[in-house]
Write a structure and sequence with these properties.
The structure is a homodimer of 103-residue chains. Chain A is built from six helices and three strands. Chain A has 103 residues and is α+β, with helices and mostly antiparallel strands. In chain A, strand 2 and strand 3 form a beta hairpin. Chain A binds a DNA duplex (30 and 30 nucleotides) through helix 4, helix 5 and strand 3.
DNA sequence: TAAACTAGTTTGCAGTATAAACTAGTTTAC
DNA sequence: GTAAACTAGTTTATACTGCAAACTAGTTTA
């Protein structure tokens, strides 16, 4: 009876975490973003952002390129195809869930 | 600029957890529900359900009444006014977030 | 009266989010 | 020239969490 409702427990926890949901959402609005841009936009601390980015990278959702801007390190992040797909699916599942009880 | 987006990190974590989101959503569709009904509907294990209910109770979101059905214990759960309000707010916040990028 | 069942709760463990502390290098001040 | 402050991150420590297995307390069945 509440089989549809139950699917809420199948949400991708990697995306579900608010800090990461924020990060991937920001990333989905730009072609790519460097670390400091993400930090400013998200308001997360460096440590926190770094840890979340590593998880997203491990999951294959974000590609991280380390280069240099002049002599300073520059970390550029970009959603992968898998990441884009995961975000789309998450949004679809969450919206479906919301629609089940909103009306 | 992404101030609106950032609010996603302010979501009530107590409600955000999928298992609890499921529980409170089920509770919001009924006047009250006993433990076994919730277990069947949610598909959660007893231990898990018990632990989540305790958290919701501690938060004041769910009222738990322990009685007996004949000689067997019966645990009846019910959303409190605060719980109903918290769920409504969560839904509103999550929907706002979704609307920011879905469009 | 022993075995199986009911209705839960507690415990143990593995995983998590977070900020503080750290690393490695660069620029500025004196 | 070298000490202090800054940049751009990563690692570590801690406190919290979700989860199922093990347990509790009582009841019914054999």
């Amino acid at each position: 009876m509440s089989d549809d409702l139950r699917r809420v427990t199948e949400l991708d926890r990697l995306i579900h975490e608010p800090a990461r949901l924020l990060i991937v959402t920001i990333l989905s609005t730009v072609e790519s973003a460097d670390f400091l841009f993400l930090q400013r936009e998200s308001g997360l601390t460096k440590g926190n952002l770094s840890a979340h980015l590593s998880k997203l990278e491990d999951a294959g959702y974000v590609k991280i390129q380390k280069t240099f801007k002049g002599k300073l390190p520059l970390t550029v992040c970009k959603l992968t195809a898998a990441g884009t797909e995961a975000v789309a699916q998450y949004r679809q599942q969450m919206q479906s869930f919301m629609n089940l009880t909103t009306k």
